UniProtKB/TrEMBL annotation:
Its EC number is 1.2.5.3. This is Carbon monoxide dehydrogenase small chain. Residues 6-82 form the 2Fe-2S ferredoxin-type domain. Pfam families: Fer2, Fer2_2. It comes from Sulfoacidibacillus ferrooxidans. Pathway: Alkaloid degradation; nicotine degradation. Keywords: 2Fe-2S, Iron, Iron-sulfur, Metal-binding, Oxidoreductase. GO terms for molecular function: 2 iron, 2 sulfur cluster binding; carbon-monoxide oxygenase activity; metal ion binding. PROSITE patterns: 2FE2S_FER_2.
Length: 179
């Protein structure tokens, strides 16, 4: 029996995509094979390794366990949507500064899991970071530098939030003082 495709509208990395997809198509295959977003990797294909982690409406999910049709009208961020080479996302900067990556196969998924942790909790303790990273398995690193990278990103985000608050209060003060 022929399988009828389903129309979906998904915002991926800030761009709205209108697509016809097979109901059985996994999100990871939509991203990689139909949209060419190959930064999301397939490791185990059984929901254990986390290499396929993306953000779905701000929450880290394993895209090998999500059907593409389930993401209709939702927002997805993949590693390609995090930052640019000139403007790294704080988590990418953290991985760079703290050597949080090794061979790189699972690094995109680990970074997306890290972003998911910080989305839910911008000031995680070391224990909370380790707990949040439980769903990602990397065979070539030891996690300590990854934890440091997430701490770096949390501190960076906090200090830039403080800087923008200071800048905003300076603007208000200058406006108040008529400068
Ligand atoms: S490929 Fe999805 S969890 Fe391993
Ligand atoms: S970065 Fe190489 S296996 Fe994880």
């Amino acid at each position: 029996m022929a399988i009828t495709n389903t129309s979906v509208e998904i915002t991926i990395n800030g761009m709205l995509h209108s697509l016809d997809v097979e109901p059985r198509l996994l999100l990871v295959h939509l991203l990689r094979e139909k949209l060419g977003l190959c930064g999301t990797h397939v490791g185990c294909d059984t929901s254990q390794c986390g290499a396929c982690t993306v953000l779905l409406d701000g929450q880290a999910v394993k895209s090998c366990t999500v059907l593409a049709v389930q993401t209709d009208k939702q927002t997805i961020t993949t590693v390609e949507g995090l930052g640019t080479i000139d403007h790294l996302h704080p988590v990418q900067e953290g991985f760079w500064e703290k050597h949080g990556l090794q061979c790189g196969f699972c690094t995109p998924g680990v970074m997306m899991a890290a972003v998911g942790i910080l989305e839910q909790n911008p000031h995680p303790t070391e224990e909370e970071i380790r707990h949040g990273l439980e769903g990602v398995i990397c065979r070539c690193t030891g996690y300590q530098n990854i934890v440091r990278a997430v701490q770096y990103a949390a501190n960076l985000t906090e200090s830039s939030a403080v800087e923008s608050e200071v800048a905003a209060s300076n603007i208000h003060r200058e406006a108040y003082e008529g400068r």
